[in-house]
Amino acid sequence: MTVLIAPDKFKGSLSASEVADTLAQELAAAGLDVHTLPLADGGDGSVAAALAAGYTAHQVNVQAASGLTHTAAIAVRGDTAVVEIANTCGLGTLPAGVPDALEASSFGFGQAIRQAIEAGAQRIVLALGGSASSDAGIGMLAALGFRFFDRRGAELPAVVRSLAAVHKVSAATVPAELIVAGDVTNPLRGPDGAAAVYGPQKGASAADIDALENGYDNLVVALTRSGWADAAAVAELSGAGAAGGCGFAAALLGARIVSGADFFLDLLDFDRHCEQADLVVTGEGRLDVQTLSGKLPVVVARRAHPKPVVAVVGRDDLGATAAATFAAVLAVTDRAQGDSVRDPAVTRRALSLIAGEIVQRLAAPTDCGRGGHDLAAVPV
Hints:
With 380 residues, this protein is of the alpha/beta class. The chain has 13 helices and 16 strands.
């Protein structure tokens, strides 16, 4: 039997490659023909997934969210590059990981985009998960050549505190196709926007959220004044609120905003890998109602149909609801001895146990008394 292991990361615990490799080791030891394809949906871990699929790492020097310079990686294959905000200026680049919504900048993300273009990329996939900033992407835009001015014509630094003072914007062009691949559907402003929904997890107080909203409103007016007649409409786009408004900034540059799961499955050639598989194993850190709205495991199940798909997850909050989508759901938290969220070793041991259970299920007769496995295909 041929098994394709194609999971997303278990956020905060194991990367997609680590999940896949742990499961693969046990399944291969049982004599199965195992292939791994670590996946991503446009969030943090997207560069790592592209590298595991054969892209080449290209090192870039960029500013972290705090402004300190560090080295990050982008993934390049042919004329396509994958650039992510998480490893350039995301939450993980903050000192001690302490969020600071009013100080963190997206400038390093723009630097990485610029260096991808300098390296020859003509199509750049923007992965916006894991961001630290709430600057509506003006840091990113500044790194790409945009300039911001107040009423007196004085140039402003491209930081959050300048948002409310911007009066005119000078544009620059980006000579590449930009694609925002993700699963965030929030607009830039309002109760479902970047500040209200994601500001608190980036350290924003209620007063900070009000200040951010006022800044976003002013920026949209300034952009309209500066020639972007559709700035207000762009701010309302699904996904404009991604990464503290970097989705909005990317859309101003003409970026397409697409479903991250389907786009990355295409980018990483999932269908070709799935074609020869008898069983697909996918997964993510937490299976919940958001998963059913089109997150990666459900999209994998849909694309693999009618082949059986097993979901291996950190935690299962769906229970019987998932039976309509997956042949089985196997959760780490049901088998872990210890804190699997904070201890990767605990997660690895539980994944090894899960792999053993998959082997047992494959060897078990079905309810109909036939030989073979009990992981029957289910409708998706």
